[in-house]
Amino acid sequence: MFDGVKKPILKVDDLKMHFPIFKGVFRRKVGEVKAVDGISFEIYEGETLGLVGESGCGKTSAGRAILRLYDISGGSIELNGQDISSLQGDELRRLRPEMQMIFQDPQASLNPRMTVASIIAEPLDEHKKLSKQQRMARVFELMDAVGLHRDFANRFPHEFSGGQRQRIGIARALALNPKFIVCDEPIAALDVSIQAQVVNLLEDLQEKFGLTYLFISHDLSMVRHLATRVAVMYLGKIVELAPRALLYSDPKHPYTEALLSAVPEPDPSSLNKRERIILEGDVPSPSNPPTGCNFSTRCPRVMDICKKEVPEFKQLDDGRHVACHLMD
């Protein structure tokens, strides 16, 4: 587990991912959607960083931008000390084995015309030169690792349950022995009874292969179980980044407080002690964010300065980072 002295496997500095908006017959650019608007963090070897926030806050865009599935709009990304922000073509392709992704919807992310063996072996075909026997041996090894029976190798994705399909996706992500994996809400499309199985599998694989995860989710209870540290995202920006225990016991940002107040409490006797924070209004459009703090239009503790100045994302004495004028 993460012990605080391991080196960062990933460094993200002021990452921006803006999507242009075009209108009219001549497709003129009239604006841009600021899906990710200047986020910075590090992920250390062997840890799990949870990335949480409401739907539409930019979590998935951030994950895909970090893996360079998109050309980023600004900032820098370092993987194992190498700047991958502007790599293209073969240079980027050579780094693909080091970084992989587990997608949210196992049904949509698997080719329905390919067998399980073909799906798992596809990364091997692209990046390795293996004989047919070596290829199948590796496929069977991966199927064993994720708990799929070898007899299923020639079946198609539609013949499996959601949980089994996600295991296929996980096996594919592991095929090239990556060290860093982005898990994009890997349990969101699964039944609750299956979610725990997949999460336990991810934990076992992390321990066995020394994996590092960026775990994207809106399920705060699951992130509490899995993550070493947690980053809270709102409208394209990270508003708080803290060790798990600190964030859940003593949130500093008003948005984090509101998110945690919405988490279901299994102990009915403690419900009366906790104040439920209801946020007013809707999340602003990422194509037209508010001036000053992005959260100023919904914050229950808003001040005049919040509507004028963007708060600095700064480190507090306890080691956490917060972007809020209340901390000044």
As residue ranges, the low-confidence spans are none
Tell me the number of helical segments per DSSP (H or I, 4 or more residues long): 9
Helix content: 25-40%
Shape: globular
Explain how this protein is built.
By secondary structure, the chain is of the alpha/beta class. The chain has 9 helices and 12 strands. The protein has helices at 59-66, 89-95, 116-127, 132-146, 162-174, 192-209, 220-226, 244-249, 254-261, and strands at residues 8-23, 28-44, 48-52, 74-79, 82-83, 99-102, 180-184, 212-216, 229-234, 237-243, 313-315, 321-323. Strands 6-7-8-3-9-10-12-11 form an 8-stranded mixed beta sheet, with helices on both faces. It has a 4-stranded antiparallel beta sheet with strand order 2-1-4-5. The longest helix has 18 residues, at 192-209. The model has no long low-confidence stretch (mean pLDDT 90).
Q: What are the defining features of this structure?
A:
eight-stranded mixed beta sheet; four-stranded antiparallel beta sheet
Reconstruct the topology from this structure.
Blueprint: E1 8-23, E2 28-44, E3 48-52, H1 59-66, E4 74-79, E5 82-83, H2 89-95, E6 99-102, H3 116-127, H4 132-146, H5 162-174, E7 180-184, H6 192-209, E8 212-216, H7 220-226, E9 229-234, E10 237-243, H8 244-249, H9 254-261, E11 313-315, E12 321-323
Parallel strand pairs: 3-8, 3-9, 6-7, 7-8
Antiparallel strand pairs: 1-2, 1-4, 4-5, 9-10, 10-12, 11-12
Helix pairs in contact: 3-4, 3-5, 4-5, 5-6
